[in-house]
Amino acid sequence: MKASIITIGDEILIGQIVDTNSVSIARKLNSIGIIVAEKLSIGDSAEAITTTLSEAMAKHDVVIVTGGLGPTKDDITKFTLAKIFNCDMRYDEREAEHICQLLARRGIAFTELNRSQALLPECCTTLHNAHGTAPGMWFDTPKGGALVSLPGVPFEMEHLMDDIVIPRLKARYELHDIVHRTLITRGIPESILAERISAWEDALPDYLHLAYLPAPNIVRLRLSAYDIERESAEREIERQFDLLHNLIGDNIVGFEGATVEQLVHDILCERGLKLAVAESCTGGTIASRFTAIPGASQYFMAGVVSYSNESKCDLLGVRPEDIERYGAVSESVALQMAEGVRRVAKADYAIATTGIAGPAGGSAEKPVGTVWMAIATPSGSRAVMRNSGTDRSQIINRASAYAIEMLYEELRKGGK
Amino acid sequence: MKASIITIGDEILIGQIVDTNSVSIARKLNSIGIIVAEKLSIGDSAEAITTTLSEAMAKHDVVIVTGGLGPTKDDITKFTLAKIFNCDMRYDEREAEHICQLLARRGIAFTELNRSQALLPECCTTLHNAHGTAPGMWFDTPKGGALVSLPGVPFEMEHLMDDIVIPRLKARYELHDIVHRTLITRGIPESILAERISAWEDALPDYLHLAYLPAPNIVRLRLSAYDIERESAEREIERQFDLLHNLIGDNIVGFEGATVEQLVHDILCERGLKLAVAESCTGGTIASRFTAIPGASQYFMAGVVSYSNESKCDLLGVRPEDIERYGAVSESVALQMAEGVRRVAKADYAIATTGIAGPAGGSAEKPVGTVWMAIATPSGSRAVMRNSGTDRSQIINRASAYAIEMLYEELRKGGK
Question: Of the candidates A48, A74, A192, which has its C-beta nearest B210's C-beta?
Answer without folding.
Answer: A74
